[in-house]
């Protein structure tokens, strides 16, 4: 029993350290509050088919485990560029279309959840400013990324975070392009994680 308790304590401590490291030190006081993992998974898009350079998935596709394409098309990026940590990423403007992806996972009503992710933009083509909306539990936040100094092979990855309070036992988290021009090269997300605060 004592051995099991020590193991559980060590596991929790490692989880907290991992969350703090992924936050890039932007959590402030929240980093000192224990957080627990959720059933959210495949935030680095490592599971699923090998996209080669990239692969396009249409609305309704569930080929990326844990995720469903909810609008138009998205591109799963493989070797076309490499996200930090050798992760895959998603260009929310597919080939073509202003797309979106979503994942539904178990939540506890009344509890706050922290979403962290890496955000960038495909610099191959315009628009110069890529627009994206993240939403869950009836709330949303909009993000923008300028590709003025970017290209397909050079990305500035910004670490972003957003939180929501769950209202139901299951919550759908969506990342959607808000671009209205172009339609081939859009906002890009990678290394998404969700933790309960």
What does this structure look like?
- With 197 residues, the protein is mainly β.
- The chain has one helix spanning 2-22, and strands at residues 36-37, 54-58, 68-71, 73-77, 89-91, 93-94, 97-98, 100-106, 112-121, 129-136, 139-146, 158-165, 170-177, 187-196.
- The chain has two domains: 1-33; 35-196, Galactose-binding domain-like (Jelly Rolls).
- The strands form three sheets. Strands 1, 2, 4, 5, 9, 12 and 14 form a seven-stranded antiparallel beta sheet that branches.
Keywords, separated by commas or semicolons:
Jelly Rolls; mainly beta; disordered N terminus; 7-stranded antiparallel beta sheet; about 200 residues; 2 domains
Shape: globular
CATH top level label of the largest domain: Mainly Beta
Terminus-to-terminus distance: 27 Å
Classify the oligomer.
single chain
Q: What is the residue-mean pLDDT, rounded to a whole number?
A: 84
**Major beta sheet, specifics?**
7 strands, antiparallel
Strand residues, percent: 35-45%
What is the succession of H and E elements?
HEEEEEEEEEEEEEE
Q: How many individual β-strands?
A: 14
CATH topology of the largest domain: Jelly Rolls
Output the structural class: mainly beta
Supply the CATH architecture of the largest domain.
Sandwich
Number of helices: 1
* Helix content range: 10-25%
What is the domain tally? Answer: 2
Unreliable residue runs: 1-33
Rg from alpha-carbon coordinates: 17 Å
CATH superfamily of the largest domain: Galactose-binding domain-like
């Amino acid at each position: 029993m004592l051995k099991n308790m020590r193991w559980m304590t060590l596991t929790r401590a490692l989880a907290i350290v991992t969350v703090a490291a992924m936050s890039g030190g932007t959590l402030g006081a929240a980093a000192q509050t224990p957080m627990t993992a959720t059933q959210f998974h495949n935030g680095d898009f490592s599971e699923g088919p090998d996209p080669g350079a990239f692969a396009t998935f249409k609305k309704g596709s569930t080929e990326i485990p844990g995720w469903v394409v909810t609008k138009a098309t998205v591109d799963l990026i493989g070797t076309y560029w490499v996200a930090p940590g050798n992760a895959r990423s998603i260009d929310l403007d597919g080939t073509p279309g202003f797309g979106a992806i979503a994942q539904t996972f178990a939540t506890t009503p009344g509890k706050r959840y922290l979403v962290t992710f890496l955000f960038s933009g495909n610099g191959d083509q315009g628009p110069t400013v890529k627009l994206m909306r993240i939403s869950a539990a009836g709330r949303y936040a909009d993000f923008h990324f300028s590709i003025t100094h970017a290209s397909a092979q050079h990305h500035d990855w910004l670490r972003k975070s957003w939180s929501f309070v769950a209202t139901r036992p299951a919550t759908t988290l969506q990342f959607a392009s808000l671009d209205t021009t172009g339609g081939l090269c859009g906002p890009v997300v990678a290394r998404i994680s969700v933790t309960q605060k």
